[in-house]
């Protein structure tokens, strides 16, 4: 909306007061347009910011504005995805929405267990408690959930990583690390 003059008849351009009036109105229209765009962003979980608290209330999630926005979005998306019959695909979908990475889900019917292996990132996810809560809500109560994490092993670093790469890698990425 750079110039409102283009929407008016040409004879208004000859009136001296109109450039000031249109300039002021143009600023107001641009602010209104920006506000409308910002409100529209709140209708989608992936772009919402201040509207996340509304999404959390709709999904029955406690509002915690101290959590990072991306983490809050994952909680909401997980809750929205976790509706329907529980399948391996659904469990995978929910876990990945929280983890922002790839997981492998394996059913172990004889053990009454569902195994979830985090494969694309190393270490324990920072929001593991949230992932556990979301999965516990959708996985039937008679099934246990077994989590498996990926770590760097000696075979992964010996003659593979340089000393500077090793020094730059935090201990929580290694098996037995802090």
From TrEMBL:
It comes from the Bacteria. It holds the Pfam family Phage_Mu_Gp48. InterPro entries: Phage_Mu_Gp48. This is DUF2313 domain-containing protein.
